[in-house]
Amino acid sequence: MTLTSQLIADQADSTTRSYEVRTFGCQMNVHDSERISGLLEDHGYVPASRDEQADLVVFNTCAVRENADNKLYGNLGNLRAVKEAHPGMQIAVGGCLAQKDQNTIVEKAPWVDVVFGTHNIGSLPTLLERSRHNQEAEVELLESLEVFPSTLPTKRDSTYSGWVSISVGCNNTCTFCIVPQLRGKEKDRRPGDILAEVQALVDAGAVEVTLLGQNVNTYGVEFRDRGAFAKLLRACGEIDGLERVRFTSPHPASFTDDVIDAMAETPNVMPQLHMPLQSGSDRILKSMRRSYRTKKFLGILDKVRTRIPHAAITTDIIVGFPGETEQDFQDTLDVVRSSRFSSAFTFQYSIRPGTPAGEMPDQIPADVVQERFERLVALQDQISGEESATLLGTTQEVLVTNDTGSKGATTGRLSGRAPDNRLIHFSVPAGATPPRPGDFVTVPITETHPYFLIADPQPEDYQLRRSRAGDAWDLAQADSCGVNAGGSSTGSGVNLGMPTIRVGG
After folding, report:
1. Where is [4Fe-4S] cluster 2 bound in this sequence (predicted)?
2. Which of 35, 261, 315, 399 is 20 to 30 A (C-alpha) from 15?
3. 236 is in an annotated binding site
4. Nearest in space to 427 (alpha carbons), one of 407, 386, 455
5. What is the spatial distance between Cα 449 and Cα 435, in angstroms, rounded to a whole number?
6. DSSP characters over 393-416
């Protein structure tokens, strides 16, 4: 570094530093990014505006899918020249891929300043400072959890809805998954701590929470209470002002009737369930070490629909697992036909180094996987369209979000979520009061599509319910940038670089 660039960097060190967090991965990664943002702001960093280059870019990574590696290293490559043009800029990499690759990240991208893992998020500000002082990369990966992430400061991405982590880690040994190696064995938070965080969110204006864990329905294993998760759902039902409770993700092998009862009997637990199938072949499920079979899986869905008739059930499915025959794949299609999922997150199997499945024989050729994947997607698209069509003409209460969809600017429609979490794009009749993010509107469904619904109500069919969450949105906008109620957000320090389903509107 030249004397001039060192002086520029030193000057940057003495001023307020801006940051951006780019997230790749699951809901747990998104929640961790909220903690990272809160931690950075607690140490004086400010979110970068859309038109400025951040002084710090943090990548919070996933290691479950093959393209996670490509996405990270591609982004790091693009930032090399940017960093050279901005003396004092820092780059940090955390999350599951950091925990897995460790020093490899700095070997492949020596311009990275900090590498931290899933167990020591709280160390990030110290590592950044140490790297700036020593002018060398800092790599710190712990093998066990340093501080439970939910004890760290939080910069919530939403004023009306929030993630609440109830556990971290996983005790399962699925042969395709590397998460237990990267996040460790399951560690549960005490119920009182969880409910205190939920109450704090509600006190701040939130009307919706999602309870989050790698396997939420084994919650309580650490303190030997098999009924802890059902009790937690019921306790959330006692919190005044909390209107919607969701959770993700459960494991079919551990899903019990007491949880179904709690869902059915707790009014603010939403009629929605994400139940990962992974495969409809019992032979493949055994090879995956998924400790359930299709009969049990379908039995759970039957019980849920008996108690909660209008529940929307979603799933995860892997296509092309090693050794999968055409008959195995046909078994999966049969289960999908029987299950009537409202939507499915479908994945083509890819080898993940360090997993037993990666060493298995009979890896499926890519062209076979692709062809099966396309057949599965076509079937699920058909089912999703048929299930959505049953809602035509129904009336739905929509929690309004601050995402207007890809066509919102041209259609003028706003967006929100139904109780069963379906995406609804709706218009506001001429002369009617527009809602704020966090408010509720009740509208009739006038058009259906496989993965979203349209509501274009007449004035007499449009009902607005202003909420504390909408008030909180107004306050947040006024505090951050002075935008009037109903204006669009200028963004936060968290950029969700996750794959999404593109929808029209």
Report:
1. 170, 174, 177
2. 35
3. no
4. 455
5. 24
6. T-EEEEEE-S---TTHHHH--EEE
CA distance 193 to 178: 28
Which of the four pLDDT bands, split at 50, 70 and 90, describes residue 273?
very high
The candidate with the shortest Cα–Cα distance to 218, out of 265, 273, 166, 157, is 166
Residue 103 CA: distances (Å) to CA of 139, 180, 435: 7, 20, 49
Q: What is the mean pLDDT of residues 306-332?
A: 97
Q: Is 505 exposed, middle or buried (0-12, 13-18, 19+ CB in 10 A)?
A: buried
**Residues paired with 246 in a beta bridge:** 210
Q: Against a cut of 0.70, is the pTM above it?
A: yes
Tens digits of per-residue pLDDT, 107-149?
Answer: 999 999 999 887 788 889 889 998 988 889 988 877 655 555 5
* Six-digit token string for 68: 């996670």
Strand ranges for 71-228 from DSSP E: 90-95, 114-116, 138-140, 161-165, 167-168, 187-188, 208-212
Short-list 281, 246, 285, CA closest to 266 = 246
- 481 is known to lie in a ligand binding site: no
The answer on whether 96 is annotated among ligand-binding residues is: yes
Supply the DSSP string of 322-351, one letter for each residue. Answer: TT--HHHHHHHHHHHHHHT-SEEEEEE---
Q: 410: burial class by Cβ within 10 Å (0-12, 13-18, 19+)?
A: exposed
For residue 504, what are its two tokens? 């029209």
Rg over CA atoms, the chain? 23
Structural contact between residues 413 and 404, judged by C-beta atoms closer than 8 angstroms: yes
The two tokens of residue 125 are 């500000």
Of 215, 228, 266, residue with least CA distance to 245: 266
Structure tokens at 263: 């869902």
CB burial class (10 A; 0-12, 13-18, 19+) of residue 423? Answer: buried
